[in-house]
Write a structure and sequence with these properties.
mainly alpha; two-stranded antiparallel ribbon; 71% helix; elongated
Length: 157
């Protein structure tokens, strides 16, 4: 399959109960969750670094060329933490939108397949096992039929 066709496939719109999204956005859910965990880890590291800074004792003589390293690092840490928190908030909103979409799918089996694939990142074989099937083609075909169905619905409206 060519990249152009693949990209077109990834950008098909899915919709149900007033929710619309692209197949590409749905596929991005797994990586979005990884990014959120990484951002939370980095924020924790920054908070730890900010609290581990030594306290400067005032009133003592200072050597030439010594600057307020604690203050300088605290400002940089605060700025970086703010950026990470803003990006984390944006990503959590997107995660909520994607998971809400999956929960609006009426067919329980399809909803389960979508959750296992996009929320948990399972392989087709693992999904087949989880839903009591032996063949990985079963959940993949159900998934693809679901996407085609909503692609047709979107293109016909």
């Amino acid at each position: 399959m060519s990249k152009k066709v693949q990209n077109a496939d990834n950008n098909r719109k899915l919709g149900n109960s007033g929710h619309t999204m692209t197949a590409g956005e749905l596929k991005n859910l797994y990586y979005l969750k990884k990014e959120i965990k990484e951002q939370q880890r980095r924020i924790s590291e920054l908070e730890a670094a900010a609290t581990n800074c030594s306290i400067e004792i005032t009133g003592l003589p200072r050597g030439k060329g010594i600057s307020d390293k604690v203050g300088k690092y605290a400002t940089k840490i605060a700025d970086l933490k703010t950026l990470l928190e803003q990006n984390l908030e944006k990503n959590l909103c997107e995660l909520n939108r994607l998971e809400t979409f999956i929960q609006t799918v009426e067919d329980s089996e399809i909803r389960t397949i979508l959750a296992l694939r996009y929320i948990h990142g399972f392989t087709w074989q693992h999904i087949a096992s989880e839903i009591g099937k032996r063949d990985e083609q079963y959940p993949r075909k159900k998934h693809n039929a679901f996407i085609r169905k909503f692609d047709q619905r979107f293109n016909n409206t």
